[in-house]
Write a structure and sequence with these properties.
The protein is α/β, with parallel strands linked by helices. The protein has helices at residues 13-16, 26-35, 49-59, 74-78, 115-118, 121-127, 166-169, 186-194, 206-219, 224-239, 246-267, 272-284, 298-312, 317-327, 331-338, 345-358, 362-377, 384-398, 420-431, 435-451, 458-479, and strands spanning 39-42, 64-68, 80-83, 90-93, 104-108, 129-130, 133-134, 140-145, 174-177.
Length: 480
């Protein structure tokens, strides 16, 4: 997926407003206007975040409020409180800056906000309420922030700027990274330097497009592939250490629906490629960790999308099982799938032999066969050819004979393999609680140190081994 994967509208609604360089973000921005769900822009200082959102409110003819969160007192939103005549309730004296009549709201510098004020934005963003009072005229809730600080780039250091609270980040449907000057092409830079006023470009107006697309969005229904896709992509990202809440999963599907409507309207016809692009953009620009974690990469999202999309395209259950087994990374997940007796023995065996032949992680291959060997023997789960492959990798672990004194390492005075120390710690930690589990771990570690040249993490390897062993034990017990 790249910035030009989809067809742009001929006029380009944002360029009509003098907003240049946002072509790759335009479908997501339009989708947020169509759905009316909260939008967060993340970018360095001076990248035009505030300008973009203020210009959108102007183009849509909205009654707009722009607040700087770093200077904001919550009374600025509410107005001056006055007790009602009955003495039992409070009303607020409205002012030009209060939020009550606003149709769009921009909370600028949202990650410079005081925590006690930031917490009060939750109901505003998620429920269009403030102090429990509905904001009946509020259509759009927007915010802007600087990116998470980088320790490498001195220009990225923003005093008082912190990662956004994860709970608050989870209230934003769209989280868009705004490009910097160096990200623009020369022609785009020239347009920015030469634009002081709104461009007069013929074509459909932005309000007309939003109104037309919003009507279709109201009647749009989730496609089965969308639900399947997001179930799979959430599992893939969870394995990478990224949690997606139930609220986020519903938001992502809603984002995808809005994006699909927008892309179909821009291209004037629905296409399979349009759905794929809508799903990818919904994931890419709906990922809340973008606002508070610096340890994710676009490649992580692209890999999860590619796998989830491929699986969602497969309708035949047998073909889907085969693809899922081969694409699954965790040994314990493979164990659950290979012990699924609703799949034919021949198919299970073929998939296993193919994986064993291509797997590059030798320890995963060894621990998988070692842990599952008792289950594979039970009721002939696999064909004879597949069992021979399993034996090839399981037997060296079962009959390992290793010397812990590695004399070929002259730099180590006592000759002990330095990798044995963390292995011994893992064994010691579990030996008192479960001696059999410790014995299995010792067999695997000895095999890994003696016969496998690849380095491995003993703690993670033992957890995978135990998970596979439990899958096998549950299977055997269920079959008795």
């Amino acid at each position: 997926m790249n910035k030009t994967h989809f067809t742009q509208h001929e006029a380009g609604f944002l360029s009509q407003l003098g907003l240049f360089g946002y072509e790759h973000l335009e479908p997501a921005i339009l989708a947020s206007l169509v759905s009316g769900d909260p939008l967060l822009l993340i970018g360095k200082a001076g990248t035009g975040k505030t300008f973009l959102l203020n210009r959108l409110s102007q183009a849509l003819g909205l009654s707009h409020r722009h607040y700087n969160a770093s200077l904001l007192s919550f009374d600025d939103l509410l107005g001056f409180p006055i007790p009602d005549s009955d003495g039992h309730s409070i009303r607020y004296l409205s002012s030009p800056s209060s939020i009550w009549k606003a149709e769009s709201v921009l909370i600028d510098e949202v990650n410079r906000c005081k925590p006690e004020v930031q917490n009060k934005f939750f109901s505003l963003l998620h429920e269009r309420c403030i102090q429990g009072i509905p904001l009946t005229e509020l259509r759009y809730r927007w915010a802007a922030m600087n990116p998470i600080q980088s320790t490498e780039d001195p220009d990225d250091q923003y005093d008082g700027c912190e990662p956004l609270d994860p709970a608050l980040a989870d209230r934003f449907a769209f989280l868009l990274p705004v490009p910097d000057w160096s990200d623009f092409s020369e022609s785009t830079q020239n347009k920015i330097l030469g634009s002081d006023a709104l461009e007069c470009v013929s074509g459909e107006s932005l309000p007309s497009f939003i109104q037309r697309a919003a009507l279709k969005f109201e009647h749009a229904k989730a496609i089965t592939q969308m639900q399947d896709y997001f179930q799979r992509v959430s599992g893939l990202l969870h394995r990478e250490g990224f949690r997606l809440s139930p609220r986020r999963m519903k938001m992502l599907q809603r984002n995808a629906l809005a994006l699909h409507v927008v892309l179909c309207e821009l291209q004037n016809e629905p296409q399979t490629e349009t759905l794929q692009t809508a799903l990818f953009l919904a994931l890419k620009y709906g990922f809340p960790q973008r606002a508070y974690r610096a340890d994710f990469t676009e490649q992580t999202l692209e890999a999860a999308h590619s796998t989830a999309w491929r699986l969602a395209q497969i309708s035949d259950p047998a073909e889907r099982w085969y693809a899922e087994f081969l694409l699954t990374d965790l040994p314990e997940d493979k164990a659950s799938r290979i012990l699924d007796l609703t799949v034919s023995k021949d198919q299970r065996s073929l998939a296993l032999m193919r994986w064993l032949g291509k797997e590059t992680n030798e320890l995963h291959r060894a621990l998988f066969c070692f842990a599952l060997f008792p289950a594979f023997q039970f009721q002939s789960v696999l064909t004879e050819d597949a069992m021979q492959d399993v034996l090839r990798y399981a037997m060296p672990v079962m009959h390992v004979e290793g010397d812990l004194e590695w004399k070929e390492l002259p730099s180590n005075r006592n000759g002990a393999n330095p990798a044995w120390a963390p292995c011994l710690k893992v064994i010691s930690d579990i030996e008192g609680k479960d001696p059999e589990r410790a014995a299995r771990a010792k067999q695997l570690f000895l095999h890994g140190l003696v016969n496998i040249k690849q380095a491995f993490n003993p703690e993670q390897a033992e957890l995978h081994l135990q998970a596979c062993y439990l899958r096998a034990a549950d299977f055997v017990n269920a079959q008795r």
